[in-house]
Write a structure and sequence with these properties.
The structure is a single chain. The chain is an alpha/beta fold and 557 residues long. It folds into 2 domains: 3-233 and 253-383 and 422-427, Arginase, Chain A (3-Layer(aba) Sandwich), CATH 3.40.800; 438-555, no CATH class. Helices cover 36% and strands 12% of the residues. The protein contains 17 helices and 13 strands. The strands form 3 sheets. The protein has an 8-stranded parallel sheet, with helices on both faces. The protein has a 3-stranded parallel sheet with strand order 10-9-11, with helices on one face. Helix 10 links the parallel strand 7 and strand 8 (321-325). Helix 6 crosses helix 7 (149-161) and helix 9 runs parallel beside helix 12. The radius of gyration is 25 Å and the shape is elongated.
């Protein structure tokens, strides 16, 4: 099974027909730029490409009222003035004669993706769509969103495929209140959203976007909101009120959450709850206005972070992950982030994350507020019962105070200009992470005809040279036996192939009596190749090599 990419060029037809600075960022180039970058990277060609279909009005009716669907259908016949008047009745919305067609394609793309994944035709995929959907409500457009693509996809999965537990992960920088309203009393859908909140001062300015909004009735605990709040100003003063959707004139530091904050949110909130919920399907409201450079979010997370987040989600629901594009308005940051997500869906290794992986203090406060609010509803949070033991960092990934977050203060103007240039340079760098020719290899000391391996797993037949194997084995009595020595040669050969980029990951079998000695050799071999950071995870009782106890390059569990 592979990865699906669902798209239709007709979704670029709708565009703003009048002057509106708030809405002009939601433009067709968001799709065309992302698709071009996928093609340049060779990623589109590696996916199963599906042309989006229009959703039926009955499918739209899974979430939306007939009256609202009829209203949007009627926009096809309106002139520019009438469209502008109607758009003004909603918050941050514009209609175009092609909006109904585009929005039906966006929903249809999400439904096609869900059908392909649940039918087993593909393992996962991305629906590259516009208009976005997560703000749209039963009878109202909102925040560039016309129909709620992900919510309809969830209802479709329930009705057509009989699913009972669906996880929706919304990493857009804005709260997807439309999804929350639709499912807030439904225990069959777990909705997780992180979003810039600023204690209610950031769009959409809703009290129900805060951490203590956890659902209603039977849905209590199935809404998980993680609000990103502004760091306090100097000397402890309160932050300034932030007007508009994304103010750049605030005098105190913006939230500016980065890679460490996003990973911490997954590890300390989302994943414990998600494992307990045990979803049958994961839907991602994939908004990339939460990435670095975006004018809406003003966050610091790099595109690579979304590859790591995607990988973390793939351990859920048997890997059945369906991502649907939401926001993202810095075209280069958007396209890079989309590529990183698709690479992860395809199974490519995620590039290393840049900068110190230490969350900001305000991020930790937000995470802890969510854990407290959700603890009555989830055993996994009750058992942990304490705040994450992490230290806040006031620094940007480069290890210095982030001037991008202080652009409103005159003394930081020059630094902000430098950071804009640095961002451009960062996003211009090729972010290729070549996929090793072999995804997974198995090293066996002796062939096992009874072992049935998946077709894409290689049974590694090579072995390290005998002299090299004997040299590594010499300090260990447990490796003196022929069987253990043969297994060690296989392990060394597999390790070399992994470190040389020929194999992504592997499994080796060694005699139980030689396991500790083989692990010792593997650690030393990895360090001898110049590895600066090595994590050793042992399931069972294995002692750390005594002479490596104080080696800062090695971490063991």
């Amino acid at each position: 099974m592979g990865t699906a990419l669902v798209y239709h060029e007709d979704m670029t037809a709708a565009r703003l027909l009048w002057d509106d600075p708030e809405c002009e960022i939601e433009c067709p180039e968001r799709l065309t730029t992302a698709l071009e970058r996928l093609q340049q990277r060779g990623l589109e060609q590696r996916c199963l490409q599906l042309a989006a279909r229009e959703a039926s009005e009955a499918e739209l009716g899974l979430v939306h009222s007939p009256e609202y669907v009829a209203l949007v259908r009627g926009t096809q016949a309106l002139g520019t003035g009438e469209l502008q008047t109607l758009s003004g009745q909603y918050d941050a919305v514009y209609f175009h004669p092609s909006t109904f067609h585009c929005a039906r394609l966006a929903v249809g793309a999400a439904l096609q993706l869900v059908d392909a994944v649940l039918a087993g035709a593909v393992r996962n995929g991305l629906a590259l769509v516009r208009p976005p959907g997560h703000h749209s409500q039963r009878a109202a457009a909102n925040g560039f969103c016309v129909f709620n693509n992900v919510a309809i996809a969830a209802r479709h999965a329930q009705r057509q495929h009989g699913l009972h537990r669906i996880l929706i992960v919304d990493w857009d920088v804005h709260h997807g209140q439309g999804i929350q309203y639709i499912f807030e009393d439904d225990p069959s859908v777990l909705y997780f959203s992180w979003h810039r909140y600023e204690h209610g001062r950031f769009w959409p300015y809703l009290r129900e976007s805060d951490a203590d909004a956890v659902g209603q009735g039977p849905g209590l605990g199935f809404t998980v909101n993680l609000p990103w709040n502004q760091s306090p100003g100097p000397r402890g003063e309160d932050p300034a009120v932030l007007p508009g959707r994304a103010s750049t004139d605030a005098p105190w530091p913006q939230v500016g959450m980065g890679n460490a904050d996003y990973v911490a949110a997954f590890l300390h909130v989302l994943l414990p709850v998600a494992f307990e919920f045990n979803p049958e399907l994961v839907l991602v409201s994939a908004g990339f206005d939460s990435a670095i450079g975006d004018p809406e979010g003003q966050m610091q997370a790099t595109p690579e972070c979304f590859a790591h987040l995607t990988q973390l989600l793939q351990v859920l629901a048997g890997g059945r992950v369906c991502a649907v594009l939401e926001g993202g308005y810095h075209l280069e940051s958007l396209s890079q982030s989309v590529c990183m997500m698709v690479q992860a869906l395809l199974g490519d290794p995620a590039p290393p994350l840049s900068g110190p992986m230490v969350p900001h203090g305000s991020a930790l406060e937000s995470i802890q507020s969510v854990r407290v609010a959700q603890a009555p509803h989830w055993m996994s949070l009750q058992q942990q019962g304490v705040a994450p033991v992490l230290s806040p960092s006031p620094y940007s990934p480069e290890g210095r105070p982030s001037s991008l977050l202080l652009t409103g203060r005159p003394e930081f103007k020059a630094a902000a200009t430098q950071d804009v240039a640095a961002l451009s340079s960062l996003l211009d760098q090729p972010r290729l992470n070549p996929t090793p020719p072999v995804r997974t290899a198995v090293a066996l000391a002796a062939p096992d005809a009874a072992l049935a391996l998946p077709s894409d797993v290689l049974c590694e037949e090579g072995s390290a040279p005998q002299e090299e194997t004997q040299a590594w084995a010499r300090p260990h009595e447990a490796l003196a036996q022929d069987r253990a020595l043969t297994a060690l040669g296989k392990v060394l050969y597999l390790l070399d192939r992994i470190l040389d980029g020929q194999v992504s990951s592997g499994v080796a079998v060694t005699p139980a009596c030689a396991a500790a000695a083989t692990l010792d050799v593997a650690i030393r071999c990895g360090l001898s190749h110049g590895a600066q950071r090595l994590l050793c995870l042992a399931v069972g009782q294995l002692d750390r090599p005594p002479d490596l106890t104080d080696d800062g390059r090695l971490e063991g569990f």
